[in-house]
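Run log, item B.
One chain of 182 residues. Sequence copied directly from the ordering sheet:
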Amino acid sequence: MKVYFFLATGFQETEAIAPLTICRRTELEVITVSVTGNLLVESALGVTVKADVLFEDIKDFSDATMLVMPGGMPGSTNLRDCRKLDPVIRDHFAAGKPLAAICAAPIVYGSKGLLKGRRATCYPGNEGELEGATYTGAQVEIDGQFITGKGPGSSLRFGYAIVEYLLGKETVDAVKKQMMYE
C-alpha cells in the first residue's frame, strides 16, 4: 500500500512529520512528494525538509492507496492552487480511494467540492472553503473516503486514524504501544 504525502512551501511541520512517522512504523510504503520543483521544501516555520521525490518524477499516481495533505499556511493554499496536483486528486477521488488532510489542508478537497455531503473538520476559520461539507470541529473526522484533522494538536490522532483506516485497529494499537501513546 502506497501513501503519498504532498509537501508545498509553507507546510506545517508537525502535521506532516507526526503522521508520517506513525505511518512509517507500519508496512505502508510512505512517499513524500515535493510539488515545488525542489526536493528541499521549506515549512511555515522555516524548517527545511527533504522530500523523497519530485512530483514531476512520478508519471502515474494510480498506485496510490491514499493521498495526504499536511496543513499550514501558505502550504495549504499552495497545495490547493497547484494545477498539476488537481487531476491526481480528482482521479483518486473518482476511484473511491481515501484522501486525508489536516488543519487548513481540507480546503484542498473542499474548494473542489469533493467534501459535499460529508462531515469534515479543519483549522477554525477555514470551514468556509469546505464547500457543501458539515463542519464538525472534531479533532479528527472520518467520513467515507475522507479523513480530516483539525490542527497541529491533532497530528498524532490524525496519523493513527490513517493507519487504522488502512490497516485496522490491531496495527494502530501496536504502533500506539511502540510510541507510548496513552
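Observations after the first pass:
- The chain has a mean pLDDT of 97.
- Residues 8 and 36 are 6 Å apart (CA to CA).
Flagged for discussion on Thursday.
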